[in-house]
Amino acid sequence: MTASQQLLALHKFGGSSLADPTCYRRVADLLVSHSQPADLVVVSAAGKTTNKLIELYQLALSGADYALLLQQLAQYQTNLIEQLLHQPTSLLELLTQELAELEQWLTSASNNRSLIVACGEVWSSRLLAALLNQLGQVSVAIDARDFLVAQGEVTPIVDEKRSIENLHQLSESFIGQQRVITGFICRDEGGNTLLLGRNGSDYSATLIAKLAGASEVNIWTDVAGVFSADPNLIHEACLIEELSLAEAEELARIGNPVLHHRTLQPLAQDKIALRVRSSFEPDSAYTEIGKRLGHVGDCIVNGIANIELYLLPDNEKTQQLIHQLPQHGFFPLVATRHVNHILLGLTLEAAPSFEVLLKQHRAIAWSKHSEFGLISLLDAGVSWYRKLFNKLFAKESSWPIVLSDNGLSLSAIVPVKRVNLLAYMLHHRIYSPSKRIGVVLLGAGNIGRCWLNLFQQQQEKLEQRFGASISLVGIVGSSAALIDFSGIAISQWQQQFEQYSQPLAKQDLLSAFENQPLDELIMLDLSADQMLSDTYAQILSCGYHIISANKLAGSSASANYTAIKEAALANNAKWAYNASVGAGLPIQYAINDLVNSGDEIQEISGVFSGTLSWLFAHYDDSEPFSSLLLRALSLGITEPDPRDDLSGKDKQRKLLILAREAGLELELTDIQLTSMVPDALALLSTDEFIGRAAELDPVISSLYQAAAKENKVIRYLAKFELIAGKIIAKVGLEQMASDHPFAALTPSDNVFLIKTKWYQDNPLIIRGPGAGREVTAAAVQSDLLQVIKAVI
Ligand code: ASP
Ligand code: MG
Which atom of ligand 1 is nearest to the CA of 199? Predict the structure, then answer.
């Protein structure tokens, strides 16, 4: 071998690189700039020419009219020649002759399939050579049938020795000229045309490189090489710059479309380097296969949307069949033992001919299972990822996770519709090890907006602190939702919500998140929605976490409350609801702390409403209660319908939540509730109620007077106490001494008093602002922090 031969390269261009005149020019320019005259070139047929020729053949075979298709093909070739060559005449003449010949072949199509289908490569090699000559790069088109000799119709086996001799002889007459050779075709001893199979030009390229003693093959294509995943589906996919031959072979076996198993065969002994690179960006990075060993850690995720699975009895006959598979051209995607059977997985393309083979082996009883796809991971150190595979895929199907015999790939069989998502998740887990946490806001009212502001300010800091990506992935309103798993830009949430939100019925909430790709999903329930609170157990069963300011679930019937707690426990999901009582006041933390340290809570009481706290701190009978109430309404201190405050229902719920937190078992109805709204006013519309609010005045006034006589004040109290093992719980207006801590409360503040075994005579008191958007939003944010801390 001479020095110049050692440096010989081969450049292969596929059909899509030659689809139109611009593509041809790009290829020719690339050869002028990136190749040596002695380098070889191998081409496929231009664009979709092979498909059209096959179609033409089939039409002719079935006796259908093919004139129009033939005319289209002729037009396409003519157009390429005319657009590209300054002097097109001689090529056009040749084309005309060949089209006439083609028509001849079509009249007895069944005998001439290969001849017909081979035309595409003849045309493309000739045109590219002519174009190169026009550019001053002296070139010659070579029909591979002039040297490449093989045997066997279906999978031709090349006679390498003869082909090498032929190639050498032929090349002697073309010294100094660039040889542009047809891919895909060869001939047999008798001179008959043979085809190397669909997409066979890559194989032609590596084979011819081997015969010519080239040291490198460049497959120029429309992608920059082999990626860590399909870049069309996974934007984070990165280029893999080096692969060992064994890894490339395994990649082909697990169904990656970039390289075919056959293409790699000629590379094996001769240490030819194979480069897959982009003809659009010839100077950018590419993938090189074969020269070096692959790196551990350069993982490739490969997903196949659809495969066919076959279960065969595990016996000698099956074993024999499996041994013969490569001879028949089958390289199963999966082959493993599975519960007394052999499990084989094949591509949809290979399945029909595989079934023919199965039928030939009559005695083998087999069953077929469809609707599954395959996700594989390729890496020299793939066994390290077994745990991750189990975690991600074990629940997806009952099929086994398979480590390939060569130890280079792990594969999981998953339902078809989960393939893309799971491939994404696997890739993400490997390439961005930090967790992805998604937060969903349910209820975009006042508190929601406030929380969004808070979150926006803290998001970056949180991400840094926890080394995770933490983003808002959903805003769910009362009938529409904006969901974006890649994260909603909070600064523009309102605009985006208006523009892009989709109608979402509450019962469809969970299905909207069915395919979410995040590691953890946290739902913030800042609504007062009953239906939503009814789905908590389901939400937690999906493994999603809930933070609620909504009190309804915490104060629902015991059975439901217990079911929610159990769902959380069973699914390792968190449910935090500190914001539902006392906003940001650490009341629940205090209770939890006491209970956890062995103390016994005997009483919790207090003023649990900012509104009622404000009203009774100001009320002194000098102004009617109703006018004070309307003032509070206009200041935004009350609910839009003040009866929601006056009824005490809300306080009853809060007391129940705290009692349960203290370890007691009781129902809402166990808490005696005295509403301040007389029955006569209870069913009116809000406006009617406001119009008749003065009817409240005499009752409140007389209560106030009665208390004042004893030097006491009135406060709206919630309280439970344990008396001789019995729970006494009530909510309503009470008299109390004017020096009682509840009496001297700053208007709007909440107060919580906790009496325990240890805090008996001198009870623990927590007080401060217990309502309002800012403090409630802050409480939600604090719960969020706790949940993130727990799941990270
Ligand atoms: N032109 C042939 C085909 O389309 C061979 C190739 O492109 O690789 O299958
Ligand atoms: Mg709280």
Answer: 8
Write down the pLDDT at residue 621: 94
Helix (H) or strand (E) holding 643: helix 643-646
Name the closest-CA residue to atom 6, ligand 1. 199
Residue 306 phi/psi, 5° resolution? -145, 130
Going from the Cα of 335 to the center of ligand 1, the distance in angstroms, rounded, reads 29
**Residues 327, 266: contact at Cβ < 8 Å?**
no
DSSP string over 395-431 = TT-SSPPEE-TTSSEEEEEEEGGGHHHHHHHHHHHHH
Pocket of ligand 1, beta carbon within 6 A: 14-15, 44-45, 50, 120, 183-184, 198-201
pTM over 0.85: no
d(CA 174, CA 171): 5
pLDDT at residue 159 greater than cutoff 80: yes
Mutate to test the pocket of ligand 1, among 50, 117, 222 (most ligand atoms within 8 A of CB): 50
Distance from Cα 742 to the centre of ligand 1, integer Å: 86
Half-sphere exposure of 517 (CA within 13 A, CB side): 18
The closest residue, in CA terms, to atom 2 on ligand 1 is: 199
Handedness of CA 663, 665, 669, 670 (dihedral sign): negative
Ligand number nearest to the C-alpha of 119: 1
The pLDDT, as a whole number, for residue 3 is: 41
- Say which residues have a Cβ less than 8 Å from residue 483's Cβ, sequence separation at least 6: 440, 473, 474, 476, 502, 512, 513
Pick the residue whose CA is nearest to atom 5 on ligand 1.
199
Q: What is the largest CA-CA distance in the chain?
A: 125
Q: How far is the CA of 196 from the centre of ligand 1 (A)?
A: 9
Ligand nearest to the CA of 182: 1
Q: Ligand 1: which residue has its CA nearest to atom 8?
A: 199
* Cα–Cα distance measured from residue 584 to residue 782, given in angstroms and rounded to the nearest whole number: 8
Centroid of ligand 2 to alpha carbon of 507 (angstroms): 29
Query: Considering every ligand atom, which ligand is closest to the CA of 657?
Result: 2
Pairing of strands 193-195, 575-576: unpaired
Pick from 661, 645, 647, 653: nearest CA to 555: 653
- 774 sits in the region (left: phi over 0; alpha: psi -120 to 50; else beta) called alpha
Catalytic residue ranges: 654
Contact between 202 and 260 (Cβ < 8 Å): yes
Q: What letter would DSSP give residue 710? A: T
585 CA from centroid of ligand 2 (Å): 5
Give the C-alpha separation, 646 to 641, whole Å. Answer: 9
Kindly report the backbone phi and psi dihedral angles of residue 204, in degrees, each rounded to the nearest multiple of 5, phi listed first. -50, -45
Q: What is the pLDDT of residues 8-66, one digit of tens each?
A: 999 999 999 999 999 999 999 999 999 999 999 999 999 999 999 999 999 999 999 99
